[in-house]
Amino acid sequence: MALTLTCPICGKRNGYEFRFGGEDKGPRPPEEGLTPGAWCDYVHMNNCTAGVQKEWWFHRDGCGSWFTTWRDTTRNLEAEPPEANK
Amino acid sequence: MLGKRKPLWGKKKRLKSSYDAVIIGGGLHGLATAYYLAKEQGLTDVAIIEKRYIGLGGAGRNTAIVRANQRTQENVPLYKEALDLWPVLTKELDFNLMFNNCGNVNLMHSEAAMKAARMNVATAQFHGVESHLIDAKEAKALVPALNISEDITYPIHGAMYHPPGGIVRHDAVVWGLAKGAAKQGVHIHQQTEATAIHTGGGRITGVETTRGRISTNRVLVSAGGYSAGIINRMLGLRLPISVLTIQAMVTQPLKPILDHVVSSGAYHCYANQTLKGEIATGAHMDPWPNYTTQNTAHYIKHQAEALSDWLPCLRGVKFMRIWGGLADMTPDMAPIMDGNDPVGGLYMDCGWGYFGFKSCSAVGKYMAQYMATGNCPDILKPFHLRRYENHRLMGETAALVNYTPDN
Ligand SMILES: Cc1cc2nc3c(=O)[nH]c(=O)nc-3n(C[C@H](O)[C@H](O)[C@H](O)COP(=O)(O)OP(=O)(O)OC[C@H]3O[C@@H](n4cnc5c(N)ncnc54)[C@H](O)[C@@H]3O)c2cc1C
Ligand SMILES: [Zn+2]
């Protein structure tokens, strides 16, 4: 389904200009004491939320910014973060 | 249809408060596993819990392509067995699955692609799966409608030709398996959604549904595109899965012009002609995860452009129906089938992306064996979840275009 995203620099643009950068998983885990399980969790594992989630995007065919935004995966619309995350 | 007609597979059953096994999802994999549990494993006290109606998911939305020319030695034998099972199931279920083994032609558009195909063909031949490398002229001889001229976006260099593959009627598989399973005592509960999975002492104890609680010590999550979300929400386990909408469509019916399944990785496009004469075509996935199952103008245009290039006789032909479904993609484009880890009695069968139709027969058979005995059959062992943390990803990706939200 079509998608419009708001780039922090360019504003509202067609979703096909962007590259999806994955679910937001927080900061990269520190190297020290890193286990294969924790690394796998960071690299591969997803929540697969049906609803509003925070995620990374890259304005590939635009200004080249990386940014995070909230999107409702059931409607493909940018969304307000849920109350708990404000 | 309105009214209270009896479903094909028998009368509605009362939801019992306990079962030997509960299967979440009345799709291809849930139905096939239930069928084989009852038929081959003697486990008949089985409930299939389906949130709406059987076949609502990928089972009723796929483009029905079956083949066994995957890339890796772990995958090929499983798909080969699945392919060999269609004629057997047709007899066994006494249900016409309309297997049309017209053969698959995978177009290659560069020397690099031909080289990759060469490896696929070698793997196939090693495993006794018929597959050949052919050049553009031979492809044209098989599929006269093909445009092998040099002046298209991706000129055709050759193809991988896999004669035993083809098309199976997907709805018939749903109905046939449902009938076969129900006949042996399996309860199919439609309009029953799983809302929680209960555990105690590291083991499965039951499933909460919108129609009440069921006690059981064995659960299979085979909810297609919804599996990863369910497993995360209900058990707090995350999976290496991205859920994308995948789209498909059919044209107006035409006289016979295509008697193979033809596909192209470079064009992100495949086409075959249904028995009704429509050209069924698809393959485009949204480049971002979503559960919408909606079509896009972007894709309809893409599909028309691609088909006009390599099947120019379709120029001007109208699309009649479009639809979408979910594809749950893993990073190595191979599924996850696992059990009893980390929760005893929990089985999962997901991450099938757009390969879950062609595999369902064999997977049902082996998942049933797994669930009945608690021991993983050898053929399923490579597909365990821990391969990701052990950095043992499978090499299926190079077989097709790497088309996940990660690229
Ligand atoms: C457009 C499209 C084209 C495809 N083309 C092909 C192809 O050509 N060849 C091929 O091999 N594969 C193809 N596939 C993939 C194939 O359809 C799927 O991989 C397959 O259907 C997966 O089977 P399943 O039984 O795991 O899930 P599904 O068939 O999706 O069934 C899952 C069921 O679970 C139910 N469910 C979900 N949540 C709950 C809950 N909480 N409680 C109870 N029930 C629940 C759903 O309603 C659904 O009925 C295609 C898919 C799509 C969408
Ligand atoms: Zn920008």
Task: Write up what this structure looks like.
The complex is a heterodimer of chains A (86) and B (407). With 86 residues, chain A is mainly β. Chain A has a single domain, classed as Folate-binding superfamily (Folate-binding fold, 2-Layer Sandwich). Helices cover 9% and strands 34% of the residues of chain A. Chain A is built from one helix and six strands. Chain A has a four-stranded antiparallel sheet, with no helix packed on it. In chain A, a hairpin with a 4-residue loop joins strand 5 (66-72) and strand 6. Chain A is globular. By secondary structure, chain B is α/β, with parallel strands linked by helices. Chain B folds into two domains: 21-62 and 171-240 and 333-387, FAD/NAD(P)-binding domain (3-Layer(bba) Sandwich), CATH 3.50.50.60; 104-163 and 242-329, D-Amino Acid Oxidase, subunit A, domain 2 (D-Amino Acid Oxidase, Chain A, domain 2), CATH 3.30.9.10. Chain B is 26% helix and 24% strand. Chain B has helices at 28-40, 75-92, 111-126, 136-142, 170-183, 227-235, 297-310, 360-373; strands at residues 21-24, 46-49, 65-66, 104-108, 132-135, 158-162, 166-167, 187-189, 194-200, 203-209, 212-215, 219-221, 242-251, 261-264, 269-273, 279-285, 319-329, 336-339, 346-350. Chain B has an eight-stranded mixed sheet. Chain B has a six-stranded mixed sheet with strand order 8-2-1-12-19-18, sandwiched between helices. In chain B, strands 9-10-11 form a three-stranded antiparallel sheet, covered by helices on one side. Chain B is globular and about 65 Å long. The termini of chain B are far apart. The mean pLDDT of chain B is 94. At the A-B interface, strand 3 and helix 1 of A face helix 6 and strand 13 of B. Residues 24-30, 49-52, 56-59, 61-65, 193-194, 222-226, 230, 246, 248, 282, 325, 327, 352, 354-358 of chain B line the site of flavin-adenine dinucleotide (FAD).
